[in-house]
Amino acid sequence: MNIFRLLGDLSHLAAILILLWKMWASRSVSGISARSQILYFIVFVTRYLDLFTTFISAYNSLMKLFFLSSTAFTIYLMLVKFRPTYERDSDSFRIEFLLLPTACLALIANHNFDTTEILWTFSIYLEAVAIFPQLYMLQKTGSAETITAHYLFALGIYRALYIFNWVLRYYQEDFFDPIATLAGIVQTILYADFFYVYFTRVVSARKNMELPI
């Protein structure tokens, strides 16, 4: 594992912990898209089917368990424990517009036409666009709490670091996965506008509780 992969994983870990802390501390899920979280859960379930059949390392297994359990817990907090604070009307992006195209693409463009590989490929394509409902919700409401912005920033950094990971692996190991690489680039591009807002409104300065989108 190279440094970019490790830092990417830690950024992903930080993003989820930031989100959970925000919800638990405020006792509210306001501004968070349950639809994006459901998509991420589908991503992890379809990607980690080998969790109990193939052992790679303790680190690998623990990270997979964390991503699955933490995302399931996030959905529980949103739809059960803190349900009255969930902004259902604002979280209205139709996820079938993401699920169906990515499923079809996985059937067409994959490494091997078998169930496990197709599901893994589907998870890669779906992860690239799973943030859409959250970004759509932010655009619809017009603002985001600063802590929510930190969560999205950490997610974006995670994907950007993985691009450097793939570049390094190509030069060091002569390894190139076009599916994962292109999907990661698409996902990072989706964050571009948000990164601009983050740096200009949060980091540069405005120390208020709301981040205009």
TrEMBL record:
TM spans (from-to): 65-83, 95-113, 119-138, 150-167, 179-199
Protein's UniProt keywords contain Endoplasmic reticulum: yes
Keywords: Endoplasmic reticulum, ER-Golgi transport, Membrane, Protein transport, Receptor, Transmembrane, Transmembrane helix, Transport
InterPro entries (alphabetical): ER_ret_rcpt
Compartments, as annotated in UniProt: Endoplasmic reticulum membrane
Claim: Transport is one of the keywords in the record: yes
Gene Ontology MF terms: ER retention sequence binding
Gene Ontology biological-process entries: protein retention in ER lumen; protein transport; vesicle-mediated transport
Family as reported in the entry's similarity comment: Belongs to the ERD2 family.
Classification via PANTHER family: ER LUMEN PROTEIN RETAINING RECEPTOR
Protein name: ER lumen protein-retaining receptor
Organism: Pristionchus fissidentatus
